[in-house]
């Protein structure tokens, strides 16, 4: 698998990105029928945003640790942190999509001026970066996972990895700002 996949990183990236973004847009736009998903209790549904805020915060830490490790030349630890970051991202996404499919999106409860001038721009940038980072993260991850470490240095992994980490960090931070606006401040 590793050898065959290494020759098709671009195609795999495209396929995974299309599937992932289709699921996200399908959930947000209501294309996934609620009846197709088993319903959790209200307590579980209420807990998901708080759990996701914790997941996002941990992901910020693991991404930063991964950056630090690669700068120190600690490649195995870098790989471990970035795979952990990806697992956190996937967990966040599954929980978020589940909540959206079952309950729909959350309305902003605060004042209209904060909604227009703080919440919406923050949410829009967060969403745009999250969408852009999907193929970039997949590409960097697939370049690294389909090759021995000695061969990764001869690829575009470092260039795409820096971009992926930057987009991921900003998106996770802005996601936490959205969480604070929706569930803590208002």
UniProtKB/TrEMBL annotation:
Going by the UniProt record, its keywords in alphabetical order are:
Membrane, Transmembrane, Transmembrane helix
The source's superkingdom equals: Archaea
Q: Where are the transmembrane segments?
A: 12-32, 52-70, 82-98, 118-142, 163-185
Entries under Pfam families matching the protein: DUF420
Which protein are we looking at? Answer: DUF420 domain-containing protein
């Amino acid at each position: 698998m590793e050898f065959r996949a290494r020759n098709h990183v671009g195609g795999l990236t495209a396929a995974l990105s299309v599937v992932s973004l289709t699921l996200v847009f399908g959930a947000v736009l209501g294309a996934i029928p609620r009846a197709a998903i088993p319903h959790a209790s209200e307590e579980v549904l209420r807990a998901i945003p708080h759990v996701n805020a914790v997941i996002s915060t941990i992901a910020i830490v693991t991404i930063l640790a991964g950056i630090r490790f690669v700068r120190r030349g600690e490649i195995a630890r870098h790989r471990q942190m970035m795979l952990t970051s990806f697992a956190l991202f996937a967990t966040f996404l599954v929980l978020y999509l589940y909540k959206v499919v079952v309950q729909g999106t959350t309305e902003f409860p605060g004042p209209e001026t904060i909604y227009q001038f703080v919440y919406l721009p923050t949410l829009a940038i967060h969403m745009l970066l999250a969408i852009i980072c999907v193929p970039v993260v997949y590409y960097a991850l697939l370049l690294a996972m389909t090759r021995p470490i000695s061969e990764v240095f001869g690829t575009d992994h470092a260039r795409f990895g820096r971009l992926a980490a930057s987009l991921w960090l900003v998106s996770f931070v802005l996601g936490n700002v959205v969480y604070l606006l929706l569930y803590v401040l208002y």
